UniProtKB/TrEMBL annotation:
<dbReference type="InterPro" id="IPR013696">
    <property type="entry name" value="TiaS_FLD"/>
</dbReference>
<keyword id="KW-0436">Ligase</keyword>
<dbReference type="GO" id="GO:0005524">
    <property type="term" value="F:ATP binding"/>
</dbReference>
<comment type="similarity">
    <text>Belongs to the TiaS family.</text>
</comment>
<dbReference type="InterPro" id="IPR024913">
    <property type="entry name" value="tRNA_Ile2__agm2C_synt"/>
</dbReference>
<feature type="domain" description="TiaS FLD">
    <location>
        <begin position="147"/>
        <end position="262"/>
    </location>
</feature>
<keyword id="KW-0238">DNA-binding</keyword>
<feature type="domain" description="TiaS C-terminal zinc ribbon">
    <location>
        <begin position="361"/>
        <end position="401"/>
    </location>
</feature>
<dbReference type="InterPro" id="IPR053870">
    <property type="entry name" value="TiaS-like_TCKD"/>
</dbReference>
<protein>
    <recommendedName>
        <fullName>tRNA(Ile2) 2-agmatinylcytidine synthetase TiaS</fullName>
        <ecNumber>6.3.4.22</ecNumber>
    </recommendedName>
</protein>
<keyword id="KW-0963">Cytoplasm</keyword>
<dbReference type="GO" id="GO:0003677">
    <property type="term" value="F:DNA binding"/>
</dbReference>
<keyword id="KW-0819">tRNA processing</keyword>
<keyword id="KW-0067">ATP-binding</keyword>
<dbReference type="GO" id="GO:0005737">
    <property type="term" value="C:cytoplasm"/>
</dbReference>
<dbReference type="GO" id="GO:0002101">
    <property type="term" value="P:tRNA wobble cytosine modification"/>
</dbReference>
<dbReference type="InterPro" id="IPR055394">
    <property type="entry name" value="Zn_ribbon_TiaS"/>
</dbReference>
Length: 434
């Protein structure tokens, strides 16, 4: 039976697995299917949540649709049936959640859902908290299996109802179903041309420094490629240059990707918790070392003297060369997520460089030849002239690095990490990872 015309927000999360499917594809499919008996009001929302959560599927993304309809129950039934039939429910880590927010509830629930969304990007939220909030707000929802997807579904609804958060856009092209799981066919030269024609209005399509395509995934999901940029027109323009296999459907999302929404500023290492992301200023207090696997690590000290490891992991490629040039005494601001008491660096701002010196045995004042060390802590001595000295020769050397803002290359960029090209009014030079 039809009812009065009403607006509705639909949030969905956790329908995919590491092997296949994609929650954004399901959203794009639903947008097209619902259009036959409802009106889609705005572009869909794609939000990335806390990137450190260990039980996420792939990109920790949730989605939301905003529609107007005259048969709410038909919408709820269609969406629930589609999630049930297409989600990877056989996978133990796939636990979908679907939330429906009716127009009559918008005013009473918007603030709490918005707060929940922003917290879910930065913090660790339990399934019980999500279920309690959905029940407290009297929302209609469906939790499959343990219902972990309710966290993302509620968050996406909160994002849709809150216009005041930094956002970018992504154009996603999806493959025809009969080729899912096979090798993708996308002309790489067309992607480099798309980047050339639209950068800096679009970004992370390719990695010029490492000569790599970034926007084409390698998993078995339906996504063919994704173009990210500042607005819908820019990503659509870039996609027009792409030459590829047939595309089943496309969808442009408004998203919190590239916003640094996950980061929290702290002044003290004692404020840092596992599975959270931070901006932390401090002093380099150890020489960077490269360990097995190619990861480069140094220790950072805060004002209280506490220390924490900071790492440029192997996937950051040439960014590690910059990190290896740091020396004790340099002052930096690091941006990144914390796991196992180590900050995974996404960006670094070098604010002050310490002086570097070349230390050598001093010359003999009589014959001019270099003295020999007399042993640890025992100074230097010229065997020929019997002269001695306690002070080595110390010559300042020019550092092969300058203060500024540096980022990892596009091939290592995390979804939420803000690209330096989006930074404005910086007081130090900005060096793009491209």
């Amino acid at each position: 039976m039809s009812s009065e015309i009403t607006k509705m927000v639909i949030g969905i999360d956790d329908t995919d697995s590491r092997e296949g499917m994609c929650t954004t594809y399901l959203c794009a499919l639903l947008r097209d299917e619902l259009s036959s008996f409802a009106q889609v009001i705005s572009e869909p929302i794609l939000v990335r949540l806390n990137p450190t959560i260990p039980f996420k599927t792939r990109g920790n993304a949730s989605v939301a649709l905003f529609i107007e309809c005259d048969d709410k129950e038909k919408i709820i039934g269609h969406v629930t049936d589609k999630v049930s039939s297409m989600a990877c429910l056989d996978n133990e880590n796939t636990n979908p959640g679907v939330v429906f927010v009716d127009e009559e509830q918008f005013d009473s629930v918007s603030d709490k859902l918005s707060s929940f969304f922003k917290r879910a990007v930065k913090d660790v939220i339990t399934i019980d908290e999500a279920k309690e909030l959905a029940s407290e707000l009297n929302l209609e929802f469906q939790a499959f299996k343990n219902g972990r997807g309710l966290i993302g579904a509620l968050s996406a609804c909160g994002a849709m109802l809150d216009p005041d958060w930094d956002h970018t856009y992504e154009f996603l092209a999806y493959r025809e179903k009969d080729v899912w799981g096979t090798r993708r066919s996308v002309d790489e030269s067309s992607l480099f041309e798309a980047d050339k024609q639209t950068y800096p209005d679009t970004w992370d399509t390719v990695d010029l420094v490492n000569d790599m395509v970034v926007c084409v995934p390698h998993s078995g999901d339906p996504v063919l490629y994704g173009i990210r940029g500042k607005d819908a027109g820019s990503v659509k323009k870039a996609a027009s240059f792409v030459v590829s296999e047939p595309v089943e459907r496309v969808c442009i999302y408004r998203t919190n990707q590239g916003t640094d929404m996950h980061l929290v500023s702290v002044s003290s290492i004692s404020d840092i918790e596992e599975m959270h992301s931070y901006i932390l200023e401090g002093e380099v207090c150890s020489e960077p070392v490269t360990i097995r696997g190619g990861h480069t690590i140094f220790m950072l000290k805060d004002v209280s003297g506490d220390v924490i490891d900071c790492a440029a992991f192997e996937p950051t490629k040439n960014f590690r060369e910059l990190i290896r040039k740091l020396i004790p005494g340099d002052r930096v601001v690091v941006y990144g997520s914390v796991t196992e008491n180590t900050i995974n660096i996404e960006k670094i701002k070098i604010t002050e460089l310490s002086k570097a010196y070349d230390i050598r045995n001093p010359p003999c004042p009589s014959c001019g030849k270099r003295m020999k060390s007399s042993g640890s802590g025992q100074g230097y001595r010229c065997k020929k002239c019997s002269t001695s000295s306690d002070i080595p020769e110390k010559t300042e050397v020019k550092r092969d690095i300058v203060p500024g803002f540096y980022e990892v290359p596009p091939c290592a960029r995390r979804h939420l990490a803000k690209q330096l090209l989006r930074f404005k009014n910086e007081e130090v030079p900005v060096f793009s990872g491209r």
